[in-house]
């Protein structure tokens, strides 16, 4: 079995060797631009980890690792159009740099390239990988739609929100782990446990992201905090605050979210969030999903070395500094 | 073997039974809207014809027929955003009716649904169908990019233009025929001949479309002619006119294409096109591609019944009234 560091090196190598050089240049250059900006490469790492947990051959998991990461980057291209996002990973988004039409079409092409890689999976596992990938891709689209729907609504329930982040974020993390397990020909029951582990991990990961955007240490978090507040994003924190607030505090929240000066707005919303104990509420929720993930981890009955590998990645994702 | 009419009925039935009813409604309702507008359903018919030519079982070709038509409709959703197109098949485009974000995301979802259908192909043929579908989907994206690139350029060569319509239109017609043949387990050599037949048929089909948009009988053509001229579209006619024109006539063409009154513009461009013999030039080119298609048809050595089936569809596509 390989260590997380070894797997990470494999992933880096995999994407360094990725060739996106074909004509027409106006189609492929933006893809190269998007893929060469890196990012955490978390999902392909998950594929390789899922594979190593069941003593698979790394090479068998490579097509899914490549396909899933390219798919993930495709969704970012299209999401950035829908969200009118100017910056991604410190660079102008494809949408901003090349325009929406390029972001649409280069994105579509990335989706095909993702399938091309998926289809290089060993014939023995191809159909299982494809079914998982199709299902996951569709759910990610559904999650993005729900996210956009919520923007238009005044009230969103906690359960609805969790379901949205499950679809938008968690299924791809879970699917990555399971794809690796499929490539290792793991038993179906184990695959499903690993998948559920991934779902709960993914949800706690997204909740942590929500928490960090508001309460994170900018130096550690790596980006400016308060952005979700400034943009009135319906995060777990936002929804929980409205759920807990009495009628008078709801009015205060409305007033705060309507402030036009960003600094005043962030500071006033933070005051109300603190008054409503939103930080411990969110931490409690993250703990709950981590515990559920742990239950599936226990059910997998991995040997200590493998267990610590999964725990290491869980810690990385959900114990980031607040 | 089934007749074209029987196959057409199968196709109609196939799409009448297509269920697109899932949540979130804002994602799936636009898909249902797009898919229920019909259209010629030419590509699934091609899949079934390709299948019957090699005595396949119709059911084996159904997944590809569905997948390819849904893929085709997905490309229309995204193309309509890029082309800012208000109307498709007599109805507002998804882009106009629901906005660009919905057209992007519902389109992406249709692409996944297309793959879901493709993946229902019999395991014996799945990998061949997938490779063909991946290759075709990528080429269609490349064709759309070239089409957009050409809009920004002043000079486009005939060869470049033919290559663009090969990618944007012909490969999907050729791919449809070959997918049907794959589902019938036709020999590779025959599949390739049928594919090349489809490429040449597809190119002549698109050239005929160019011709009809300018010289068609509106009553027979079913839509207003002259639209390509009004929008300065770089069609075969446009490119050929500039290729044949001497320096003085090029200036006349520039002046004509710069007229702002649509009727004056169409009438003046038509005058110049007639002066340059563009109609017979285009008809000659269509004939050439039909002849090349015929050569591949001959090479297939089909029995008379099957041959006449292919000829019937060729006639339908390329002998439309001018």
Give the tags.
mainly alpha, 16 helices, two-stranded antiparallel sheet, Farnesyl Diphosphate Synthase, homodimer, 77% helix
Q: What would you note in describing this structure?
A:
- The structure is a homodimer of 322-residue chains.
- With 322 residues, chain A is mostly helical.
- Chain A folds into 2 domains: 167 residues, Farnesyl Diphosphate Synthase; 136 residues, Orthogonal Bundle (Farnesyl Diphosphate Synthase).
- Helix content of chain A is 77%, strand content 1%.
- Chain A has 16 helices and 2 strands.
- In chain A, α4 packs antiparallel against α6 and α4 runs antiparallel to α8.
- Chain A is globular, with a radius of gyration of 20 Å.
- At the A-B interface, α4, α6 and α7 of A face α4, α6 and α7 of B.
Mean pLDDT across all residues of chain A, rounded? 95
SS element count, helices of chain A = 16
Number of strands of chain A: 2
The geometry of chain A reads as globular
- Widest sheet: strand ordering of chain A: 1-2
Question: Quick one: CATH superfamily of the largest domain in chain A?
Answer: Farnesyl Diphosphate Synthase
Biggest chain contact: A-B, 35 and 35 residues
Q: Which structural category fits the helices and strands of chain A?
A: mainly alpha
Oligomeric composition of the shown chains: homodimer
Give me the CATH architecture of the largest domain in chain A, please: Orthogonal Bundle
Q: Structurally, how many domains make up the residues of chain A?
A: 2
Summarize the amount of helix of chain A as a percent range.
over 70%
Q: Could you spell the SSE succession of chain A in H and E letters?
A: HHHHEEHHHHHHHHHHHH
CATH fold topology of the largest domain in chain A:
Farnesyl Diphosphate Synthase
CATH C-level class of the largest domain in chain A is Mainly Alpha
Distance between the termini of chain A: 33 Å
Gyration radius of chain A, in Å: 20 Å
